[in-house]
Amino acid sequence: MRSGVVLTALAFGGMGAAGGAEAQQRGEPQGGWGLSFVAAEPVGEMALFFDRGFGAQIDGAWPMSSDGRVRLRGDIGFLIYGHEQMQYCYSVPIGCRIEADLVTTNDIFYAGVGPELAFPAGPLEPYAYATAGLSYFATISSLGDEWGYADWAETTNYSDLVIAWKLGGGMRLRVSRGSRPVALDFGVERHRNGIADFLTEGDIVDNPDGSLTLYPNRSEANLTTFRFGVSIGFGWSRD
């Protein structure tokens, strides 16, 4: 029995070494950087407050095993799920010769780190991951010109910081080889933000005396996001 166990271990070790060697021969990336466009849909109670959100995400993965299939992943991104814009004139004596736009956005900024498992098979690389981190809900107002190029004042009207968990997976389709292979990246993520306090469109009321009245919401703040982007890997060139 001991001999069988030893032979089995050697066989699996040989398979692992062969897999790593084969990955090197194919020039498969062991990690990389990615930039994605993100579309979000609220889940559960959160769907009562808004329909969808859009944003972007940057992620990176670093190899933690010799064959590059176990990786340490980190990502950071943002979503805008609400937007309001109002136009104002300056007070006398300038008046409406110079106009200003007051723009308010409802945002979610998030970041996390955790393990990623990748399963490269030629040009295709399915992967799955889990991260732990933070999500920052913020409603921000800024004053600038009507083209949005000259914002000269900004205020965070309301914010909340929560611990966040995320499960995700996707597929990378390699479109070029070399030492920095490029791949198209498609993914889906489930954000579990727990209970959060946040504002949505219309939750800030401007009073006649210049003061503000806020109507914050408290709810489960879970999301599903869909990603499409580009990943640049690092591996070996065997062209």
Structure, explained:
It contains 1 helix and 12 strands. The chain is mainly beta and 239 residues long. It is elongated, with a radius of gyration of 24 Å. Mean pLDDT is 84; it is low at 1-26.
Summarize the structure.
By secondary structure, the protein is mainly beta.
Query: What share of residues are in beta strands?
Result: over 45%
**C-alpha Rg, in Å?**
24 Å
CATH architecture term: Beta Barrel
N-to-C span: 45 Å
What brief labels describe this structure?
Porin; 12 strands; two-stranded antiparallel ribbon; mainly beta; eight-stranded antiparallel barrel; 239 residues
Helix-strand layout with pairing:
Elements: H1 2-26, E1 31-42, E2 53-63, E3 70-89, E4 99-118, E5 124-144, E6 153-174, E7 182-192, E8 195-198, E9 204-206, E10 212-214, E11 217-220, E12 223-234
Antiparallel strand pairs: 1-2, 1-12, 2-3, 3-4, 4-5, 5-6, 6-7, 7-12, 8-11, 9-10
